[in-house]
Design brief:
The complex is a heterodimer of chains A (200) and B (274). Chain A has 200 residues and is α/β, with parallel strands linked by helices. Chain A has helices at 21-30, 54-61, 112-123, 140-148, 165-173, 182-198, and strands at 12-17, 40-44, 66-67, 80-82, 88-92, 96-100, 127-131, 152-156, 178-180. Helix content of chain A is 32%, strand content 20%. In chain B, helix 1 packs parallel to helix 3 (48-57), helix 3 crosses helix 4 (59-69) and helix 5 (80-97) crosses helix 8. The chains are: A alpha/beta (200), B alpha/beta (274). Chain B: It comes from Rhodocytophaga aerolata.
């Protein structure tokens, strides 16, 4: 029986995370079905001037290989994307990415707020936003935009976070749909996968 | 503040095109929208309509608008591995067949990349054999590039980049510090021609051995990128190089088959067909 009352209206998932999120993301990715259908767009805070190593490290555990998009790449089903170092990752109308070297937002580039807000604008109620552990408030405004446009919002259970500033900021700013532990987030994604597979 | 609608942005770009003959209609939507949002906040304007009114009534404001709408975040020696590749392979390769090098920095912003290039050339001992043209749409930022004065705060990052580039000395050798500012050695850019040029209205104006346009076209949509790339192709000598940002590519564009990839990691392309 569905715990989350899920349907297959969604077009994409965006995930934001900062301090402590590497292990969390690794765990999620290693438990994701290989043929997970929805595109997952991840914006994780990372060292600005280290171009290599991050995506490779995440790929070791992941069931689906991650890819750092280039400017104007299309967003495809079944792919996982990671915001590259020192660029903001934006989603454009017409289902593609664009990159930007604009000023840092919340002291961050990539900024989670920018990825989440541009995704919310494009996908409206067909978007799922997940915000994980982190030490600053980046992502909170983005989660609010997702909620305001009718999307589904999930944050990691603060008590489980290495640093809970990020999810707590989001909870304060907007009505979050689900506050979940990492295991529950994994269960959520697996259940979502089943819904999509049953409907095709 | 209310979220800006696409229709409002269309109206804005139409008015600007009509009145000032600058075409922003093919800018990438999400960043253009954010720039406009930023301008509204900066000048405390209530809506895009108010901005349109201000632009219509105050021609002098348009210059400021252009400065603010374009992104001017840049670094010296951004992507140090790229600058090493340029020094170790690309520039020596050009020098094999030429006594002089001509270089175009398209969208040079505040000039950090131009100074980086001049330093590389100087350390190679070929600065006096090089002709550099540096262009930007924004005349105020060109003035900043010409003056070569940067905040010391930014120099920390620039120095780190230079260290990773592994130059022959330290970056400090190329500037002096005064009142929290780094004043670059002007002799580096003595022979650089800084000119106003709008890539959107692009007409080829000269030919070059090397064109750098890194992290500029990311603010354009693909149709406009395609046109600009055609113009770059026209502006290159055969066997000249075109360099774009580390997360840009030209494999998809119309003139892709007229280039080969010289270095995929650093996004260096070599023109092989006219």
């Amino acid at each position: 029986m569905s715990q989350f009352k899920l349907n297959n209206q969604y077009k994409a998932i965006v995930i934001g995370g900062s301090a402590g999120s590497f292990q969390v993301i690794s765990k999620i990715l290693s438990n994701l079905p290989k043929d997970f259908e929805l595109p997952i767009i991840m914006c994780l805070h990372r060292l600005k001037h280290v171009r290599h190593g991050f995506v490779e490290a995440l790929n070791i555990k992941s069931n689906i290989s991650l890819y750092e998009p280039e400017d104007k790449d299309s967003i495809k089903k079944g792919k996982i994307y990671l915001a590259p170092a020192n660029y903001h990752l934006c989603i454009e109308l017409g289902n593609h990415f664009s990159l930007s070297t604009e000023e840092m937002v919340n002291n961050s580039r990539p900024s989670i707020d920018i990825t989440l807000e541009t995704a919310a604008y494009v996908y409206k109620n067909k978007l799922i936003g997940i915000l994980l552990t982190g030490a600053n408030k980046d992502g909170a405004m983005g989660m609010k935009k997702i909620k305001d446009r009718g999307g589904l919002t999930i944050v990691q259970e603060p008590s489980e976070c290495m640093i809970d500033t990020m999810p707590v900021a989001a909870i304060k700013l907007t009505q979050i749909d689900h506050v979940l532990t990492v295991s529950q987030i994994i269960a959520f994604l697996q259940e979502l996968d089943k819904v999509y597979k049953q409907s095709t | 503040m209310q979220e800006i609608e696409i229709a409002e942005l269309r109206k804005l770009t139409e008015v600007i095109k009509e009145k000032y003959n600058y075409d922003f209609s093919n800018y990438a939507m999400s960043s253009f929208k954010r720039r406009i949002q930023r301008i509204l906040e900066m000048y405390k304007l209530a809506s895009v309509d108010v901005l349109i009114k201000k632009l219509t009534e105050e021609p002098r404001f348009f210059k400021e608008f252009v400065s603010e709408v374009t992104v001017n975040v840049t670094e010296m020696f951004r992507d140090p591995s790229f600058w090493r590749e340029l020094r170790d392979h690309i520039l020596p390769n050009i020098m094999l067949n030429h006594n002089n090098i001509s270089i175009w920095h398209a969208g040079c912003s505040s000039g950090e990349e131009v100074f980086s290039m001049a330093i590389v050339l100087k350390e190679m001992g070929i600065l006096d054999k090089t002709k550099i043209v540096a262009t930007d749409i924004d005349t105020d930022i060109l003035q900043k590039a010409r003056s070569g004065v940067y905040s010391m705060k930014n120099m920390e990052l620039n120095q780190k980049n230079y260290l990773r580039f592994q130059g022959t000395t330290t970056l400090e050798k190329y500037y002096k510090e005064e009142n929290g500012k780094a004043i670059m050695d002007k002799s580096l850019v003595e022979h650089v021609s800084f000119r106003e040029h709008n890539l959107v209205a692009s007409m080829a104006f000269s030919k070059f051995d090397l064109i750098l346009c890194r992290n500029v076209m990311i603010y354009f949509n693909q149709a406009l990128q395609n046109n600009v790339l055609k113009m770059f192709h026209e502006s290159l000598f055969k066997y000249g190089y075109l360099i774009v940002g580390s997360k840009e590519s030209l494999i998809w564009c119309e003139i892709a088959n007229k280039f080969i990839v010289a270095n995929n990691e650093e996004k260096i392309y070599k023109k092989i067909k006219d």
